[in-house]
Design a protein that fits this description.
globular, single chain, Rossmann fold, alpha/beta, 8-stranded mixed beta sheet
C-alpha cells in the first residue's frame, strides 16, 4: 500500500563489531526472465550462518531495511555483524524491474520470482543453513506466499513478517481508497516514533505502487487462510503498538494463528513502534529479535551447530 512520506526486551542474539565493517553492496539477481535489484551485506570474516532475505512493502524499496537516519538500526548491517548474510530485494515492479514490469505482478507471480532469485543467489554465494524470509506489509504477504509454495530443496528456514495480519482494522472501503489517498497516520503512526531525518531520507526509497499489486491489496483477508495452511516452516508475526492497518486483538490473533500449519508460530508485540517498524527508534530491538527467531529456526531445522 502506498506509503506517503510526511513532513518533517532482552534477546540472545547481539550484533558485534568486527575488525572490518560489513559493506552493503548493490546487486542484481536473475529471477526467471527478469532481474531483481537489491542490497546485500555479507559477514566480513567468515561464511554466513544463514541468509536473511528481506521484502519491502508497497510504495517502498530495498532501502527500507537499511535505514540511514540511525545507522545502528539497519537490518542489513546488524545481520552481517551477527554472522549472517542479508539480502534486501526490490520486489518485482520496483528497482531494476520497474521498467520491464510497469504494472508489477500479483502475489503468486511475485513469490515465483523470489524463489527464482534465491536459486540464483545460492548458485553465487554461500547460504549457510538456508534462508529466512523477512517481509514487511505487502512484502510480508509475498513472504508468506513464497513460503506456501517453497520446496524442501530450497532450504527455507522460516518466515518473519511485520505490518500484516489476517483482518483489516479499517473498513474495506477505506482500504481501497488508500491507493488514491494515502494516509500517513495509518502507515507511520506518531512521527515521534522515528529518528530525526527519517522522512527526508526515506524519499530516497519511496516508489510508485504498481497497479497489479495495488488492485490485490483489499483481497488479502479472503486468501490468507489458503496461504497459511500450506506453510510448513516456523512463522513469526510482529505487531507494532501503533499498528493501525491490521487488527491484532485476541480474536484477530486467534484467526491469524489457527489457519497456520507451521510447526512453530510466534506472535510478538513491539512497544513504541508504528507500522513502518524497521525505520523507527525501536528498529534495532525488533531486528535483534528477528535474528533471535532465525536462531530458533536453525535449531528447529537441525542446522544449528
Amino acid at each position: 500500500m502506498a506509503q506517503p512520506v510526511p513532513e518533517a526486551s532482552t534477546t540472545t542474539v547481539t550484533a558485534t563489531a568486527s575488525r572490518r565493517p560489513s559493506l552493503v553492496q548493490q546487486v542484481e539477481l536473475r529471477a526467471g526472465d527478469i532481474h531483481l535489484s537489491g542490497l546485500l551485506a555479507l559477514p566480513p570474516d567468515a561464511p554466513p550462518r544463514a541468509v536473511v532475505v528481506a521484502l519491502h512493502g508497497s510504495g517502498m524499496a530495498a532501502g527500507y531495511f537499511h535505514g540511514q537516519a540511525d545507522a545502528s538500526t539497519s537490518l542489513l548491517s546488524l545481520a552481517a555483524g551477527a554472522g549472517y548474510a542479508a539480502l534486501a530485494l526490490d520486489r518485482p515492479g520496483y528497482g531494476a524491474s520497474a521498467r520491464r514490469l510497469p504494472h508489477g505482478l500479483c502475489l503468486t507471480e511475485q513469490a515465483r520470482c523470489v524463489r527464482a532469485a534465491l536459486r540464483t543467489y545460492a548458485a553465487r554465494w554461500a547460504t549457510g543453513a538456508g534462508f529466512l524470509l523477512v517481509g514487511h506489509s505487502l512484502g510480508g504477504k509475498v513472504a508468506l506466499t513464497t513460503a506456501a509454495t517453497a520446496r524442501r530443496a530450497e532450504r527455507l528456514l522460516g518466515v518473519d513478517v511485520s505490518g500484516v495480519g489476517a483482518r483489516w482494522a479499517v473498513p474495506p472501503d477505506r482500504v481501497a481508497a488508500l491507493r488514491h489517498r494515502p494516509d500517513h497516520r495509518l502507515h507511520w503512526g506518531p512521527l515521534t516514533l522515528y529518528p530525526p531525518d527519517t522522512f527526508r531520507l526515506a524519499r530516497g526509497f519511496v516508489a510508485p505502487v504498481p497497479a497489479r499489486e495495488a488492485d490485490e491489496i483489499p483481497d488479502w483477508p479472503g486468501r490468507y487462510a489458503e496461504v497459511a495452511r500450506r506453510i510448513r516452516v516456523p512463522v513469526r508475526f510482529t505487531f507494532a503498538e501503533y499498528e493501525r492497518l491490521w487488527a491484532w486483538d485476541p480474536p484477530a490473533l486467534r484467526e491469524l494463528t489457527s489457519s497456520l500449519a507451521a510447526p512453530l508460530v510466534r506472535v510478538d508485540h513491539e512497544p513504541d513502534a508504528g507500522h513502518n517498524i524497521s525505520l523507527g527508534h525501536t528498529a534495532r530491538r525488533h531486528h535483534l529479535r528477528l535474528l533471535d527467531f532465525l536462531e530458533e529456526c536453525r535449531v528447529q531445522s537441525g542446522s544449528a551447530g
